Amino acid sequence: MPTATARTLEINGLRLGYGETVIIPDLSLAVPTGKVTALIGPNGCGKSTLLRGIARLLKPANGTISVDGRPVSSYGGKEFARMVGLLPQIPVTPEGITVADLVARGRYPYQGLFLGANRDDDAAVARALEATNTLELADRQVTELSGGQRQRVWIALALAQETDVLLLDEPTTYLDLAHQVELLDLLATINEERGTTMVMVLHELNLAARIAHHLVAMKDGRIAASGSAEQVLTSAHLEEIFGLQAEVADPLADGSIVVVPRARATARAMSELATDAGV
User: Tell me: the pLDDT tens digits for 74-95?
Assistant: First the structure.
């Protein structure tokens, strides 16, 4: 796979929402280049809205989103699509389309108005299918596949697009734990081999800690904490951001940390003990 170009992605003073409803009032963020950044936070905090803003699906009311120092609005459609790709939470699969044909749609930013696929396009599709272990599925209809297979096909489409920045909105939705781990391991491999900058929304905190180099925790449309998993996933932050009483276990052998929610009875007992002790 071709190596991704190291592009900067910066957000400054962003105000974003839907109509009169403001979801993100004022947000600034410099996304680490060539790394995996995970957006975490409670439902409705603005994670998916932020991705949609970066992908130019929502127009900011104020502030800027820039790639390589240029506002994203200044790029032409295909030029931007060669740099930034988005895998939405629930992609719409065209009826009757095969895996190979769907993945080939990732090549549209490189094709002219009246020109079909060329050798470069065919090679890119083949590389994407091979990298995602979907080559044997190429002639099958996407709607016939399991959830895990389907997600890998959509990842293949994003790979065929050969963007330098990849945005993923809850890529593990509807997958069981084994397939979640498998998919995130695939994305981690792509990041390591291509250097693709990735920004993904994840709800499972332990998986976010496992894959991401950088975590951004959001609450009420603002950044509540950012940094490494060790810096963000503290007991204090988990209670403040999620309202979750939890312990953070010591790092595992691979260096990842584990969030362990307290049982209700345990949390209640600890609270009562603290009250009795006058804490």
Answer: 999 999 999 999 999 888 899 9
